[in-house]
Amino acid sequence: MRFPGFLPTLLLMTAVALGFVLTFTLPPSEVLSLELYNRAVTDYGQYYELLSAVFVTPYLSDVLFNEVSLVVIYSFFRGEAGWREVPCFLLGGAVGNLATVLLLPPDTISSGASGGVIGLLGYYLARDALIRGGSLKDLAVTAAFLGFIITFSSLSFSNVNNVAHVFGGLSGMLCGILDYLFYKRRNG
Fold this sequence. Notes:
The chain has one domain: Rhomboid-like fold (Up-down Bundle). The chain is built from nine helices and two strands. The protein has helices at 3-25, 28-34, 38-44, 49-52, 60-77, 85-103, 114-131, 136-156, 162-186; strands spanning 36-37, 109-110. The mean pLDDT is 91.
């Protein structure tokens, strides 16, 4: 394992684990103010919850699944994106949470890093499909694969926010496409 390439993934894993620890060390009212509560965002302007909710989760199974998923993503892609992983993960989580606010009922409460994790996976899959000479067909296969993962997680775990997963994955794919286009322009 190339440790320096692993640093961004390690940072994300540490942040997710610390968020889980905070869930059980902070008073419940403070944890609730960090989770995504749609009404708090729309009615009271607590926009920070779009990002803070990515790092807060009360479920051990969710944290373990996200940690293992980050290790698996690293094992396949070896952290090729370097530090670009961090904003891609954050964007995936925030876009997933924004979609949650816009598409789910006002009293919805959501938390967890899965939107960011699926965003990171979408980034790498889309970017790799294009780097390897892929086409729109390959991007469609990437989207279908992400859909399979989202369906699997929905069937495997309770309280899954599919809206956050879908939009996190789509934003990750968009990041991968943009990264490829900038890479192609820089390298001819």
